[in-house]
Amino acid sequence: MIKKYNLINFLILNLANLIYCKLPYRPVVIIHGVLTGSESMELISSRIQEMHPGTQVYNTPRYAGWNSLEPMWHQVEQIGEDVMAIAAAYPEGIHLLGYSQGGLVARAILQRYPEHNVRTFISLSSPQAGQFGTKFLRLFFPDLVCETAYELFYSRVGQLSSVGNYWNDPYEQKLYMKYSKFLPFVNNEAKSLNTTLFKAALTKLNKMVLIGGPDDGVITPWQSSQFGYYNNNATVVDMREREIYQTDAIGLKTLDNEKKLTIHTVAQIPHFMWHKNISIVDKYILPYLD
Ligand SMILES: *[C@@H]1O[C@H](CO)[C@@H](O)[C@H](O)[C@H]1NC(C)=O
Ligand SMILES: *[C@@H]1O[C@H](CO)[C@@H](O)[C@H](O)[C@H]1NC(C)=O
Ligand SMILES: *[C@@H]1O[C@H](CO)[C@@H](O)[C@H](O)[C@H]1NC(C)=O
Questions:
Q1: What is the mean pLDDT of residues 263-273?
Q2: What is the DSSP string of 58-97?
Q3: How far is 113 from 80, CA to CA, in rounded Å?
Q4: Distance between CA 118 and CA 120 in Å, rounded?
Q5: 209: enclosing H helix or E strand
């Protein structure tokens, strides 16, 4: 009975789209944050379907809970394969949204699979420039403190964890460049054979949306959600003043010049509320999903 209803609903919607010459909404792939799973992204998923009827939403169940601490490249590879399979079924393009660590996984998927057809990429409070705060890990690693975490993360073993892969200690940049297997590469701070592709993969986006805010409390510094970060004397520098932007290392400047880069700073949203707040979805996410 339910199936039948859905089918009728689907036909009516598509008929309406035909009559008004409206194209159907592109599918949206959603990637959850660290130490949670797809259930944490249900509100965003259902709100998209409610406001944009007919949208296919793929809310990845992969790397939930503890598994979300697996190395970033593993997650990028696996979830990336799913994203590319979905993309192949929709030649008109898809959209990609990631929350917290998931936004960094999502961005690296674009770079690892430069043949993607993602049009809009939305990063919802993600440590795009790295992380230098242990608050979200305290629950699980009560002894971890910022000042000495590098000793754990900048080692072969430490690099076996996702957090180690984007741990960016402003006081230990030499060790960061030496040990980190992930962030220096996707941010083109370390040159590799893929540097050119990594940039091309981002500049082909139609839209990049970076959402974050000063009351986040977990992403440290919060400006990392918008590619801002500490300089080498631990002063936070905004994206546009940083080398990654000024040298156009990964195409942020190109996107910005072409008006394809949108930054939203929203106050009074704690980290664990970004994906639980309907008004955030309505104001800063839905307008970019066509
Ligand atoms: C470059 O990318 C290819 C495939 O995307 C990957 O197999 C290879 O390991 C990457 N090399 C470097 C140096 O990042
Ligand atoms: C730290 O960096 C900021 C911004 O680049 C600069 O204004 C400030 O003078 C620097 N402070 C020190 C102690 O070097
Ligand atoms: C939701 O976000 C809006 C900003 O868009 C904020 O004003 C409001 O207080 C938030 N609501 C909750 C319950 O956090």
A1: 97
A2: EE--TT-GGGGGS-HHHHHHHHHHHHHHHHHH-TT-EEEE
A3: 7
A4: 6
A5: strand 207-212
Q: Is 235 in the pocket of ligand 2 (CB under 6 A)?
A: yes
Residues 6+ apart with CB under 8 A from 85: none
Rounded CA gap, 109 and 113, in Å? 6
Q: Which atom of ligand 3 is nearest to the CA of 277?
A: 1
Is residue 102 assigned to a domain? yes
In a domain, 10, yes or no: no
Checking if the pLDDT of 95 tops 90, the result is: yes
7 domain residue, yes or no = no
Rounded to whole angstroms, how far apart are CA atoms 256 and 264? 14
How many domains would you assign to the chain?
Answer: 1
Q: Return the closest-CA partner of residue 183 out of 120, 249, 95, 124.
A: 249
Tokens 């139609």, residue located: 206
CA 229–ligand 2 middle distance (angstroms): 13
Q: Tell me which residues are annotated as active site.
A: 100, 216, 271
Asked, for residue 201, whether it belongs to a domain, the answer is yes
pLDDT above 90 covers a percentage of the chain that reads: 85
For residue 233 and ligand 2, the question of a CB distance below 6 A is answered with yes
The CATH number of residue 223's host domain is 3.40.50.1820
Q: Which domain holds residue 211?
A: 26-288
User: pTM, whole model, 2 decimals?
Assistant: 0.91
